[in-house]
Amino acid sequence: MNLEPKFERNWLFFYLLVLVLVGLLTGYTVELIAVFLVGYIFIYLYKLEKLYQWAQSSNMENLPYENGVLGLLSSYIYQCKKQRFEQKESVKYQLERFRKLISIFPDGVVILSLSDEIQWFNNEATRLLLLEKRDIGLPINHLLRHPKVSELINRGSKGAVVTIDAPTSEDQWPVKKLEVRLLPYGDNERLLLVRDVTQMERASQMRKDFISNASHELRTPLTVMKGYSELLLASDVIDDDVRASLKKIEQQVVKMQTMTEELLTLSRLEEGGAGFKEVLVNVRSLCEQIKSELAPVADTKEQNLIVDVSPAINLRGNKTSLVTVLRNLVTNAINYSEKTGDIHIFWSMNELGEGVLTVKDAGKGISARHLSRLTERFYRVPENNVMHKTGTGLGLAIVKHELERHDARLIIDSVVGKGSWFHCVFPITKVNITK
User: Fold this and answer.
1) Which of helix, strand or coil describes residue 192?
2) Which residues contact 32 (CB under 8 A, 6 or more apart)?
3) What is the DSSP secondary-structure string of 293-361?
4) Among candidates 102, 105, 101, 108, which has minimal Cα distance to 194?
């Protein structure tokens, strides 16, 4: 049975009291107590050493002590060891389940250490990256030699994605396209996720080729149609009803030509084939150029174009590209702003020191659920398109691609009933302020 610590302590005091009485009778009180305490300490040290050895061992049975303080300590250590063993078994079981799950995962998974050494990978990673068991422990950069992957791993951006050509063997053709993503995993590891996106890349390329080819093929018939419509409109032999119909035809042809040109522009931007030469562009002059170009259109709706940009602000970039960006944003602002509304173009600096060129319209605003899709091709806000059908739905897609060529980004804010803000955010390296 287990004795309470107080009970064991009381017995110690009782033994000491007996020794004191015997010592008084024999005259050796101090000697007896000293011998007793030394023996007691040595015995306890021996028992503690035995308890320590048992605690360090993997033995779960044969508790060394069951009574007194050491018995209670043995029982506590036993419970801790049992709990640790159960936790270890649970973790082992969960890890085994995780590995079984990952082994049948449709994507390749590679577990990396913080020093980028391969610790484990599944069967799909073997197929996609041509990894072998002997590669465990080797740095991933030694096996997957690609600048994009090296940059991804060194930069370590959470959720960053790159697309690369897959490593190939002699019997593998055509080359597969892989999407590689890096994610944090645990405290000291990272997950490299690899997905085969060959079919998606092919479909995307087919879509781009189709749009590019169709746009090129449409150019000639649209030019012919526009030419004939202008020729007929210039004639004096047609009546007013026919003339009105021809004007509608001409308007639709012009709209189709605009869409065709914008599609071709997008194709060139996506392929990276458009020329790009950077110069120092004065932002105030750029805004004034767009203002003078679009002021007649704004005047038809009694709108004011207000430019608030210091003449000292300059951007290092491609002027034609920047003109395209600002023209599209201001044109959209004119189209979607209310009559007699003010359209503001202004410059600011954010907390990171980046330059921000903003176009603020006077429209009805856009619901938050639409903001993330505004830069998609042909996407239009349904509730706005009831009143506005002039655009092609390609302007913001072009703006996004043109800004990316400047390492810039487009941020859209909108409040329903108060209008929208289109922020072109340029990195600090592109901003030059003259003194």
Assistant:
1) strand
2) 19, 22, 23, 26
3) HHHHHHHTTT-EEEEE--TTEEEEE-HHHHHHHHHHHHHHHHHHSPTT-EEEEEEEE-TTS-EEEEEE-
4) 108
pTM: 0.56
CA distance 281 to 320: 10
Query: Closest Cα partner for 426 from 350, 359, 375, 372?
Result: 350
What whole-number distance in Å separates Cα of residue 70 and Cα of residue 320?
85
Q: What is the CA radius of gyration of the chain?
A: 39
CA distance 143 to 139: 7
- Give me the helices (H) in 104-138, please: 123-129
Q: Which amino acid is residue 15, in one-letter code?
A: Y
Q: Measure the CA–CA gap between 110 and 130, rounded to whole angstroms.
A: 12
Domain residue limits, the chain: 5-99, 104-196, 209-271, 279-433
Instruction: Report residue 251 as tokens.
Output: 């308007």
Does residue 328 contact residue 386 with C-beta atoms inside 8 Å?
Answer: no
Identical fold, 104-196 and 279-433 = no
Q: What's the pLDDT tens digit per position in 186-211? A: 777 888 888 888 888 777 777 777 77
The per-type count for the chain, helices as H runs and strands as E runs, is 13, 13
Q: Give the pLDDT confidence of 117-142 residue by residue, as tens digits.
A: 888 888 888 888 888 888 888 888 87
CATH architecture assigned to 104-196: 2-Layer Sandwich (3.30)
The CA distance from 366 to 415, in Å, is: 6
d(CA 250, CA 233): 9
- What DSSP character marks residue 278? -
279-433 is a CATH 2.170.150.70 domain: no
Confidence of residue 12 (pLDDT cuts 50, 70, 90): confident
Residue 302 buriedness (CB in 10 A; 0-12 / 13-18 / 19+) = exposed
CA distance 364 to 415: 8
* Assigned token pair, 107: 């994507």
Grouping H, G, I as helix, E, B as strand and the rest as coil, residue 255 is helix
DSSP-derived 3-state class of residue 193: strand
Residue by residue, DSSP assigns 28-92 as -HHHHHHHHHHHHHHHHHHHHHHHHHHHHSS--S--S--SHHHHHHHHHHHHHHHHHHHHHHHHH
